[in-house]
Amino acid sequence: MPPFKVYKVMQDINQQLYERKDTPEGFIPVYGVVITVPTGIYISGQKEFTCDKTFDEVKEILLKGGSIIAIDNNNNRVNFDRIIISNNSIDASIIYFSSGGINEIDLTWDKDAARAGERGTKSINTFVAINSNQIIKHYDINTIIMLLTNDGTPTEVLNAINTTFTNFDGFVAAIGKPNSVFYNNNYGKFYIRYTGDVITIQWSNSNTINHVALRNDGNYDYNTIQIVDQTLYRLSNLTIEPIVNPKIWVGTATQYAAIAQKDNNTTYIVKSDA
Question: For residue 266, what are the contacts with CB-CB under 8 A and spacing of at least 6?
Answer without folding.
Answer: 223, 224, 225, 226
